[in-house]
Amino acid sequence: MLPRSLHRLILLATLALSLRAQTVRSVIVDTDAGADDLLALLFLLERPEVRIEAITIVHGLAEPAAGAESVARLLAYRGRPGIPIYVGAARPLSGDAAFPAAWRAAAGQLLRSHPPVDFRPQAESAASYLKRRLLRGAPVDVLALGPLTNFGLALRQEPRLGAPLRNFVWMGGALDAPGNVPTAPTAEWNAWLDPLAADAVLGAGWPLRIVGLDATNQVPLTPADLANLTGLAAEILRAEADSLAAGRYFAWDPLAAAVLIDAALARWEHAALGVRRQGPENGRLLRVPAARPNARIATAADAAHFRRVFFPVTRP
Q: Are strands 266-271 and 295-301 parallel, antiparallel or unpaired?
């Protein structure tokens, strides 16, 4: 027989491992691979309670193929090359809205100072993977950091998706805040790029949390934040040094990633939301009177709390 003290230690260790297994969350990240996306990914890779199950790439700041390459370099640098990457939609469900070409070219060059990686994305498309995965029973969280086109395509293939979804956090939209699209000043980029897909996700019945400009405008990133970063995080954010200095760079995707870990860093409104799909306010979120609430939207964020949660990402 084992001594009682050793038996007790074994029981405690087994319990600790069991509790850890219960608290580790499996996450799918959908991203358009801009600098703030890469910071959000780097943050999640450093969190012991997160297991990134897969990364899906969507059009947006980077062309999907270039975005997949940037993500692959990030994973290789952090010693996580085994996470599967699925390349997704190169254009919205309808129309031809896009970021300015110069922005897309710049995003496509992120991390290109690092050596090339031996990388091939999965043969399956992002939408096909999402459809297949969300039909499975295993619980999963989703963090969506770009336009929602991949999810719109998956819902077109199978409208009944979502049973295992525990949490769907999307960085997108503007409700009461001004927009940030120069040609559509009431809209936010991710919603404006594909309002049809955003509308489909809002109608999917998923446990949706929206982190839009109402919250992210309260969390600017500054040159002081860059000065406090080290390693790869500093390299990524340095690409946005001009925007930081001009006061026009915010913690868009990093805030959404931090909310996935700690929802208490934002204030939430449970609301019935829709999205305008035409006219001068195309892409703007709106409240739908007398409808059942379909999302929680962050109406404010605590910048100090965000920094306490997010900036362990400064690890070299």
A: antiparallel
Name, of 107-116, 196-205, 228-237, 306-315, the range with top average pLDDT: 196-205
DSSP characters for 161-201? --TTEEEEEEE---SSS---BTTBTTS-HHHHH-HHHHHHH
Average pLDDT in the 126-135 region? Answer: 96
**Per-residue b/e over 198-237, b at no fewer than 16 CB within 10 Å?**
bbbbbebebebbbbbbbbbbbbebeeebbeebeebbebbb
**pLDDT in the model for residue 3:** 55
How far apart, in whole angstroms, are the C-alpha atoms of residue 95 and residue 282? 12
Residues 256, 145: contact at Cβ < 8 Å?
yes
Residue 5 in this model has a pLDDT that exceeds 90: no
